[in-house]
Amino acid sequence: MAESNSASTIPKKCGPYISSVTSHGMNLVIRGIVLFFIGVFLALVLNLLQIQRNVTLFPPDVITSIFSSAWWVPPCCGTASAVIGLLYPCMDRHLGEPHKFKREWSSVMRCVAVFVGINHASAKVDFANNIQLSLTLAALSIGLWWTFDRSRSGFGLGIGIAFLATLVSQFLVYNGVYQYTSPDFLYVRSWLPCIFFAGGITVGNIGRQLAMYECKVIAEKSHQD
Q: What predicted TM-score, i.e. pTM, was given to this entire model?
């Protein structure tokens, strides 16, 4: 009788399961916050490059930050970064295609460096015309995907992100929120989708790496339990 009472007091399997679900939700929030601040930082740095070369122009009354960026740009980019970074690993799980190509932080950092270089080229390198610049950036962006991603989901999401972000930019420029010098693709520059595509791939890789780190932590905790 005593043995049955002692056995009944042993925690059931549902305890660790509920704990893992709770920790997953918390880690999801933490990953979103980290991705948000990464997006804010990249927005400040990359937008500064564009403004210094007069590629993008904001009205004087909205120049409020120390980096000469409109106040709404960093939080919008941070939010987009959080959404994209969480969407990539979610899409991988949904498609049943876990991304295992170059899954280490050194590769992610190189991907970030290449993305910054692509943005730097769009602002600093002088080409004979916008067509040459656009084709060069398109090749570099696809090269970034091939070097650091190579997944169908990553390419598809990158195309979707580039399309939606370019559409939003067209809408903002049309309404006078900001403007591009020498627009050649309706109201924006023709190379802008390439930057958005490369940015989506880069943030997606960061989000995947953060998700992989979470999985490792949960696995270690389950082994300890």
A: 0.77
